[in-house]
Specification:
This protein is mostly helical and 300 residues long. 89% of the residues lie in helices and 0% in strands. The protein contains 10 helices and no strands. Helix 2 packs across helix 7. It is globular.
Length: 300
């Protein structure tokens, strides 16, 4: 819920400022607070609807390609059919696996639904939550220390906002470029591969390999010659992204050497999985800045 709210909050702010507050201010003349409250509700609803529409649209593009790829694998590997025919000997195990899969999927859906509800409350009242947190910090800590904490939090938000928004834009461009290049080259499963490469590119360093390896396997099974062509084209594209596009979009928002980027992804990825790998670089960038600042102060 916190992650969804944090990612969608910039869109909510833009919707407030440019669409709904001007609209409702004209309707509720002289009632600024009421106009603001109604505008926030409309903004949250509009942004959530837009996000669901985008996710649903991507799924509708990708699912047919996944079905086609599975069908192609089944046709190209007839021995899989024999394994399916023999499922009766392991019926209990098979049914148990299906039951576990359904339960896991249901649990994920429930968690996502609860997270969605939490994100609505957070986006609707984020100013109040921030004000309460600020009061608590000043109530617990001395004024100077409280100011330092707020400064660190502000800097953390700045690093996260710039890195995540930049990475999403970069990954979107990479996904579109992959789709165009693969289409021109006649590579199969174009939409599926483009979405996979674009989504996994959000993960720094390792994301490219996570997307490339299964994509290459799919293309190789369909056509070995196309598989080789795919690898050549995708390596050129990744070089362009790593050396030109990525640095141009992200700029110097990270301020970390390659070793520390690799270290942070391995460390946070081992602790928190995929989410840890995505957040590793901005989190470690903030920690690195704080340690560097502390050391400089102590040395001085």
């Amino acid at each position: 819920g916190v992650v969804i709210a944090y990612l969608l909050s910039p869109l909510v702010n833009k919707s407030d400022r440019y669409i709904f507050i001007p609209l409702w201010s004209k309707i509720f003349k002289g009632k600024k607070k009421k106009a603001s409250n109604v505008a926030r509700g409309c903004s949250v609803f509009f942004v959530l609807l837009l996000a669901i529409f985008v996710v649903f649209g991507i799924m509708m593009l990708v699912i047919p390609e996944i079905i086609d790829s599975i069908t192609g694998l089944a046709k190209s590997m007839p021995e899989y059919y024999n394994n399916v025919k023999n499922w009766g000997t392991n019926r209990d195990k098979f049914l148990g696996a299906i039951t576990d899969g359904v339960m896991d999927a249901t649990s994920v859906l429930i968690d996502f639904f609860i997270g969605l509800i939490i994100s609505i409350y957070l986006m609707a009242g984020k100013e109040n939550f921030c004000a309460q947190a600020k009061k608590l910090i000043f109530a617990v800590l001395p004024a100077k220390r409280a100011g330092s904490v707020l400064s660190v939090l502000s800097e953390t938000h700045g690093v996260f906002a710039k890195f995540i928004s930049g990475k999403i834009i970069d990954s979107l461009i990479v996904g579109v470029l992959t789709f165009i290049i693969m289409n021109i080259a006649g590579i199969p499963y174009t939409i599926l591969i483009s979405v996979l490469i674009g989504v996994t590119n959000i993960i720094p360093f390792f994301g490219q390999y996570i997307g490339i390896i299964p994509s290459a396997v799919l293309v190789f099974i369909a056509s070995p010659s196309k598989g080789i062509l795919f690898l050549v084209l995708i390596i050129i594209l990744m070089q362009f992204d790593g050396n030109v596009l990525g640095p141009k979009i992200l700029g110097d928002s990270i301020g970390l050497k390659s070793f520390w980027i690799l270290f942070s992804i391995l460390f946070f990825g081992s602790l928190f999985g995929v989410l840890g790998m995505i957040c590793a670089v901005p989190v470690f960038a903030v920690i690195y800045r704080m340690v560097k600042r502390f050391c400089a102060g102590r040395l001085a």
